[in-house]
Amino acid sequence: MVIKVYIASSTGSLAVKKHQQAVVGFLEANRIDFQEVDITMLEEQRLWMYRNIPRDKQPEKGNPLPPQIFNEDHYCGDYEDFFLSKENNTVFAFLGLSSQPSVKVSERAYTNTESQTTEMVSNHTQLQTCKFHLCTI
């Protein structure tokens, strides 16, 4: 499954630029694989994007503005939808992805660390005992 972000590389709108940067930056920061599709380069890509945005998401006047986000051919939403999902911490569901695996220490590594800590405490106690005995001799 490839996330596709439809963008406009040459736009006069500062808001569109910022919205595109916010989406792309978030995906990069979270190591989510995605593909940028520049609608200013090929009319075919722009027309495909327009045709595949649901009618209820089409603006009353004009064409939908980038960024528009798809998972393969499935429409996910526009910047406002993305922003809301980010605020609600539901971006992975919004993108149609399973949750990103969190970075975990394996149980085996934890067990090893735990046993090493126990061993260190035991060694420290033994050392303290030895010091005590040396001092009392």
Automatic annotation (TrEMBL):
InterPro entries: Glut_rich_SH3-bd (IPR006993), SH3BGR (IPR051033), Thioredoxin-like_sf (IPR036249). One of its GO terms (molecular function) is SH3 domain binding. Keywords: Nucleus, SH3-binding. The keyword Nucleus applies. It comes from the Eukaryota. CDD domains: GRX_SH3BGR (cd03030). It is found in: Nucleus. Gene3D superfamilies: Glutaredoxin (3.40.30.10). GO terms for cellular component: cytoplasm; nucleus. SUPFAM superfamilies: Thioredoxin-like (SSF52833). Its main location: nucleus. Belongs to the SH3BGR family. This is SH3 domain binding glutamate-rich protein like 2.
